[in-house]
Amino acid sequence: EPTREAFLKISLKVMQNPPLEMFANAIISGWLVATMVWMFPAAGSAKIVVIILMTWLIALADTTHIVVGSVEIFYLVFNGTLPWQEFIWPFALPTLAGNICGGTFIFALLSHAQIRNDMSHEKKARAAEEAKKR
């Protein structure tokens, strides 16, 4: 019984956030998960450490994530505490949108950083060719 009460308390705490706050918090967790995935190739045998660290950071920051949060909210739904509609809104849609925005932002930022030097070299090469033509 204490376990059920604790899980109920944790799950209800998630639902206290308004949709805009869920969206904003989800951006952070989406960013952290995308960063974790980006770190995997360099992590080698430390991948499990990276997963634990990023999961810990998401929990520490008290952010919302669609996968982890769904478990908490489904508990409320299946327990009869929350109707299905409230899983969709105010939880799932803002959280999923925030996760996508956060993950897409970091992916775009890292991708741009990786090719930025190539782009500047290409621009310099084109400028040099234009100068030769004159």
Describe the protein's architecture and organization.
The chain crosses the membrane at residues 22-41, 48-68, 88-110. The longest helix is centred in the C-terminal third of the chain and has 50 residues, at 84-133. The protein has a single domain, classed as Glycerol uptake facilitator protein, CATH 1.20.1080. The chain is 86% helix and 0% strand. By secondary structure, the chain is mainly alpha-helical. Helix 1 (2-14) packs across helix 4, helix 2 runs antiparallel to helix 3 (47-60) and helix 4 runs antiparallel to helix 5. The model has no long low-confidence stretch (mean pLDDT 92). The termini are far apart.
What sort of overall outline do the alpha carbons produce when their principal axes are compared?
A: elongated
How many structural domains? 1
| Major sheet summary line | none
CATH architecture: Up-down Bundle
From N to C, what is the helix and strand string?
Answer: HHHHH
Rg of Cα set: 21 Å
Number of helices: 5
Count of distinct strands: 0
- At the first level of CATH, what is the class? Mainly Alpha
Membrane topology: Multi-pass membrane protein
InterPro entries: Aquaporin-like (IPR023271), For/NO2_transpt (IPR000292)
Transmembrane segments: 22-41, 48-68, 88-110
GO molecular function: formate transmembrane transporter activity
Briefly, what is this?
With 134 residues, the chain is mainly alpha-helical. It has helices spanning 2-14, 19-43, 47-60, 66-78, 84-133.
Notable traits:
single chain, 134 residues, Glycerol uptake facilitator protein, 0% strand
